[in-house]
Amino acid sequence: MISKLNNYFIGFLLVFTFTLTSCNEDLGETPSSQNLVKEAIFESMKEWYYWNEELPMAINPTEYRSNDDLLYDLMYLQLDRWSYLTTRKAFDRAFTGQNAGHGFGFGLGEDGKLYVSFVYEESPAGRDGWERGWELTKINGKTIEEYRIGSGYNFELGENSPGVTNTFTFKLPDGTTTTRQNTKAEYQANSVLYRDVINAGSKNVGYWVYNSFKVSPGVSPNRSEEVEETLSYFEDEGVDELILDLRYNGGGSVDVAEQIMNALIPAADDEKLMYTNALNRDKRDLNETFQFTKTGSLNLNRLVVITSRGSASASELLINCLRPYMEVVLVGQKTYGKPVGSFPLSQFNQVLSQNEVELVPITFAIANAEGNAAYYDGFPVTIPSVDNPAFNWGDTREANLASALTFIQYGSSAVGARQKVSEDQWQMIDSFSGLAKEFPVY
To answer: How far is CA 419 from the centre of its chain?
Structure first.
């Protein structure tokens, strides 16, 4: 999750360009010593890390085999599950949906079998016609069970770089089988996986499957054109209720989360407090507050959100910020639990920047208008239900969608004890780490 603080800090950095350059003149044009990089990581963590009081006073960079080993040793593991290292290019590409890979996800059905859970339209899988609901039976000639490790899977699909090829065998909903060879390639990922208006009794219910808060490339200020189009669609359709499906949404841009929240907030709560950012004790003068700015004509009294452990970061921010002002009903499974955020630090450190090392540690906590800022265990649901990717998007037989629609039409008593839900079932987000955990896709 990236904050609007990032834009502020870029301006802050420009003011001090001369000072930074002067301080680093002795490093040479491109400092490349691995020890210098490790020292830069440590110094940046001391300055910006949210839990910087937990850091050691000093380090010996020669004791660490890699930058990742150093970062892991510095992380406050009691609460931090998210700090990571990447490159600025990879970071920028991820937050604008510029991917490389097959372009699809997996999910376990209620029958314990593995299904395609989502497909990006312009990805190699999307262009080959893959759909949610296809049962995966083999990868590269091996059965799915052969890839099981403990409660999860290691599918051995190779690096996410163009040219890597894998072969998949599927059982389709009509009972036929198909084997597809698919080659990874670069593609632009869509965030809106599905949208429709469903009639539930006397109500027009908008159903919106939203998968990661991505900024449209080349658009300024930061926003999503997909989001704009989808919100306009629901406004034109005159929806009475909205189901926002975030079950696979691991986070992304806070700018886009704000874009959505500003459209969903009741008009009566325009200009009220959305959230506050709190940095570490040494950066308190940079703490910020953000207010709602109502946009559009949606007039909702409540929001129904479909969640799972794959719902994290900016997804949880949206839930947390809207709750003080409208009823937010969660259907599905408990969310991941990430009440903290990050912004990239290479912009403040010449050594990291010149060595193309992007450090993205936890740098701030987020509180809503009621001060709620400690949901590390995730948000529990109102209506327990389960993801069932055996059914395609919009199929009202799918358990989560069916539960949400039943609640809207008949109330919680009709679905409150509908299903017993296991919280520890493997989900795709469990197979990813670092930057990829925010945007999990194969």
So the answer is: 27
Are 163 and 100 contacting, i.e. CB atoms less than 8 angstroms apart? Answer: no
| Spans of all domains in the chain | 102-187, 192-344+356-438
pLDDT at residue 427, as a whole number? 85
Radius of gyration for the alpha carbons in the chain, expressed in angstroms and rounded: 22
Tell me the β-bridge partners of 205.
198, 241
pTM, whole model, 2 decimals? 0.91
CATH entry 1.10.3720.10 includes domain 192-344+356-438 = no
Are 332 and 247 in contact by the 8 Å Cβ rule? The answer is yes
Measure the CA–CA gap between 54 and 74, rounded to whole angstroms. 8
Q: 213: which DSSP letter?
A: B
CA 80 to chain centre: 16
Task: Single out the residue of 261, 342, 331 nearest to residue 298, CA to CA.
Answer: 261
Residue 46 is classified by DSSP as: H
Q: What is the pLDDT of residue 414?
A: 65
Task: Give pLDDT, residue 20.
Answer: 33
Q: Does domain 102-187 have CATH number 2.30.42.10?
A: yes
Q: Which of 392, 432, 395, 388 is nearest to 129 (CA)?
A: 392
Q: What pLDDT was estimated at residue 172?
A: 98
Assigned token pair, 311: 């719902």
Q: What stretches in the chain show pLDDT beneath 50?
A: 2-4, 6-31, 417
In angstroms, what CA-CA distances link 52 with 8, 12, 42, 77, 219? Answer: 21, 21, 10, 13, 35
- 192 with 259: CB under 8 angstroms? no
Measured at the CA of 316, the angle between CA 149 and CA 337, to 5 degrees, comes to 45
Three-class secondary structure assignment of 386-410: CCCCCCCCCCCCCHHHHHHHHHHHH
pLDDT in tens, 244-253: 999 999 999 9
Question: Measured between alpha carbons, how far is 105 from 126 in angstroms, rounded to an integer?
Answer: 11
Whether 164 and 157 have beta carbons less than 8 Å apart is answered as: yes
Q: Kindly report the CA angle at 87 between 81 and 89, in degrees rounded to 5?
A: 125
If one counts every other C-beta atom within 10 angstroms of the C-beta of residue 12, the result is: 13
Distance CA 258, CA 253 (A): 9
What backbone torsions phi and psi does residue 8 show, to the nearest 5 degrees?
A: -60, -45
Contact 313, 376 (CB under 8 A): no
The share of the chain scoring above pLDDT 90, in percent, equals 83
Query: 37: part of which helix (H) or strand (E)?
Result: helix 34-48
